[in-house]
Amino acid sequence: MRYMQPFVTEVDFASGALSSPGYVIQRKLSDMAAMYADEAAASRILAQEGDRLIYEVQGVELPAEEGQIPHCTTRILPGRVGAEYHMTKGHYHARREQGEVYFGLSGRGYLVMQTESGETSVQEMVAGSAAYVPPYWAHRTVNVGDEDFVFFSVWEARAGHDYGTIERDGFRKLVVMRDGGPLVADNPNYT
Ligand code: S6P
Ligand code: ZN
Predict the structure, then answer these.
(1) Protein residues within 5 Å, CB atom, of ion ligand 2
(2) pLDDT band at residue 191 under the 50/70/90 scheme
(3) What is the CATH number of the domain that holds 145?
(4) What pLDDT score was predicted for residue 1?
(5) What residue numbers bound the domain in which 90 lies?
(6) Distant-in-sequence, close-in-space partners of 73: CB < 8 Å, separation ≥ 6
């Protein structure tokens, strides 16, 4: 048995930056334009102002083995595409029985969840919120504030990520700006 060495990563709460990230992923509008309900608004932004960073993930690199506990930060920039607030792609875990914990570091967001049998849940998160995504729930985060929304995630290494189901069907609920604040609405394009 060769023991892996313990380690500590410093996390900047305002930006989500890790002291030595194993990986950094940037998702731009062009990577997910079709996920926004108002696809015409997405096309307009791409044509008029060019591509836009929507969110960034910084994580530690760990082997995808049972018992490993990957963790990362996500920073979602403020903004909207049409009326819909900036958000992550969202996913189910490939192994549906694996849950996850999110911890709010800065800013303000909504955690939008749903099950394959039609239940939905939308939870508000601020700095200091520990949110639990139970097994079987797809999850997406949305920045509903004027500053970056940053949170920390912890999950089990073999959970895996199923993005395809959400890319195909979408989420049942959208978070849009109405009268200057966030409103949870039905997604007219949900299949
Ligand atoms: C991983 C966890 C988060 C997301 C991240 C980006 O299981 O749920 O770290 O990966 O917030 O979202 P997405 O949907 O692009 O993976
Ligand atoms: Zn996840």
Answers:
(1) 100
(2) confident
(3) 2.60.120.10
(4) 75
(5) 23-186
(6) 11, 16, 17, 18, 57, 58, 59, 105, 150, 151, 152, 153
